[in-house]
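Project standup — Tuesday

K.O.: blocked on the structure for the chain from last sprint. Re-posting the sequence here as requested.
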Amino acid sequence: MNFLNKFWRIPALALVVALPLIAACADDEGASPADPGGPSTGSISGQVTVSPGGAPVVGALVGTSPATSTGLTDANGNYSITNIPIPGGSASYAVTASKEGLTSASASTTLTTAAPSAVVNLVLTQPTVPPPVTMGSLNVLVTNREGVPQADASVTVANASG
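H.V.: unblocked you, prediction finished:
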């Protein structure tokens, strides 16, 4: 075989190998969705407030479990998480909001291809803080009216409220 006879086989072989790869990597724009009954993604939105008072919480982190994506609340406490997968036409998610200095809150929701969006409002709470405990020492000398120290005296200490 001469050189030209061998040369044309190389591009032909490359083309045979490359065509399936090109087809696999083709843009699927216009392709039919995996679930023709509705969208395969959904969204969850809502508002995060704080109790007591009901004021909106700015900058709270809101996420889902199983994990999809997260969102932050805006100046009005509103959030939106989009492109949440709905595999098999129905998926349940726990939605959790958290903010430093507040106690987190969670709620559950289910997205379906028939109802791909849900509104989940969450209420964070102020953590309960126990009153501070003050420790110290107290030295007491019990005397009678004449100023003579008394042995075996009993002393009770109470705070201002009794």
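K.O.: great, moving the ticket to review. The first strand starts at residue 41 and ends at 51. Confidence is low (pLDDT under 50) at residues 13-19, 27-35.
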